[in-house]
Amino acid sequence: MQTKHDKPTIDQVARKASVSKTTISRYLNGRYEFMSEETRKRIQTVIEELEYRPNNLARSLKSNHSGLIGVVVADISSPFASILVKGIGDQCTASGYHTIIANTDNDPVKEKEYIEALIDNRVEGLILNITGHNNEFIIELGAEGVPIVLADRAMSELYFDTVTSNNYQMTYQTIEYLIRAGFKEISFFTEEIGVVSSRRIRMQAFLDACKQHFQHDCEEWIRVCSFSDLNDVQTSLLDFLGTDKGPHAVFAVNGVMMLSLAQAITNLNLVMPRDLGLCGYDDWGWTSLVPPGITVISQPSYQVGVEAAKRLLGRIQQKKNMRAKVIELASSLIIRGSTKL
Amino acid sequence: MQTKHDKPTIDQVARKASVSKTTISRYLNGRYEFMSEETRKRIQTVIEELEYRPNNLARSLKSNHSGLIGVVVADISSPFASILVKGIGDQCTASGYHTIIANTDNDPVKEKEYIEALIDNRVEGLILNITGHNNEFIIELGAEGVPIVLADRAMSELYFDTVTSNNYQMTYQTIEYLIRAGFKEISFFTEEIGVVSSRRIRMQAFLDACKQHFQHDCEEWIRVCSFSDLNDVQTSLLDFLGTDKGPHAVFAVNGVMMLSLAQAITNLNLVMPRDLGLCGYDDWGWTSLVPPGITVISQPSYQVGVEAAKRLLGRIQQKKNMRAKVIELASSLIIRGSTKL
DNA sequence: TTGTACGCGTTATCAG
DNA sequence: CTGATAACGCGTACAA
Lengths: 341, 341
Description:
341 residues, alpha/beta, Rossmann fold, 3 domains, six-stranded parallel sheet, six-stranded mixed sheet, 12 strands, DNA-binding
């Protein structure tokens, strides 16, 4: 009695409508140019009766067109990624594509496995938020003809279209703002930089801006600590504040670090901007609520997703060999009380 | 020259290894029980040389086993959903399944389209965070044999396994806590309730708890406003505080409303708990940072995802007709300064 | 231990 | 205007 559940095939429709599969197939693909009004009606009726829907697996297999886009992100639970994914999804949907999303947890092994699995399922293209540890593999994939766009995190050379925000410029500009605002010592709080381009670029911008304005290397102002270890963050913070000059400011490399810093500051009963200034990435909605409001850089995550998808779909549709290109979208600096001396 | 990019098929492998497809197929599926050590080695070599990977579309088509799970959420950009999705993904991955994620933006039309598309791609099961406006359709799908699990939002009758947090109990308990803490007027701030079960249940718990303790209906304490319209929230808040009794407390139906309320409170220069108490759903990381700390209910979103996936995979694997069941996971109440009179 | 031949549900090429 | 038939890439009885 489980045949009741089996989905009807094009054959059954054909039989019931007393025509051949071919005709049904034509109908399905809108090629009713050479079809009598009558058969057309009949087919329509039968399809509705049977609630027939074509099997996309078979269709994809035959046509080499799955209508699927693979998306691989490092951490879907971060607001940056989830909003990015939303942008990608909206754009893909608008073009009749669907997205398969995979989450790597920043694990290169998972990353490779997922990408392979996506390819195995014949996605037509990939949007990647890379860990940075599978670059050769990914480059080879690209060479084999798989359309690929990088989102947020770039490779050191331009192999693929890359959509990011203007990390360097924005960070540089923010550090300059801090200096103009009167801060004399500025610390850059980051988690392990590794090979993640956005972190690396932000750090470089920090170093360059400091060197430009303070006339000396400022590497000792970089604090690498684990955002998941609040004690670590607190210790680093106190250590930095312990230097005597001041006024001190702290820059957060990303939203997670920003949260840790805000927690540390709260725990230590420090008052902004009296005891220290705080600013950095990202604006995840709550930064205006922590008195006196935290100065933040707001990234256009949604737009990054949209542009990445647009670029990928463009590449998929016109098989031309467009040159790889970097698309940098502008973030915005939102100045609040935490950095107003 | 583009043949270079074409992926090798099982036939090519077979030819190159001088055996038949069958043998390759056996090799791929680990059935080397009847295979000479030698052919096995040879096949392995050829596969590596050609970098052959089986086409999952063909495989799925033939075997009726796609290894894909469809996930449909109302808003992927919300922390609740993105963490839920992470839990689902982790669990599915652990069982060798992949997830296709679709985002409905709470739009019933999109919801139906996506579900159909997922079915067309032969996902083996669905995890749904429903809008509530396609219930008949979904129920029919279930009747046709598609394994379905609901996450977070339930239907009014128990058609499917449903994984949620203990909304009623937790909300009731929180309202009781507020009353014990000394609040005399409690407002329930929500966006349009519609057919979303979690909102409805929380509201009911609020009403029941108030009635129980204040001995009268408290519907006038419910404020429906649009979280995207901050003015609306501020006006409603002032309106509520305008009543003379006090002390006043406000309960947020979800994390988005909580954020709006916190913003409204900041904008209006209100001080907690002096001017009002604030608590509710959700704990999205920042609530401890707004002085004096906001009392929140923390949902086990990740665990909801994990359990939903477990349940679905169980259903897929053992084709038995398990009875539909509700799995309620416990949230936790985190008491902070905002409600300590 | 290995191979032949057919089918999964579609689409495309031809012929009628 | 319509219908056989082959093919997409793989898995599996059945045969050898």
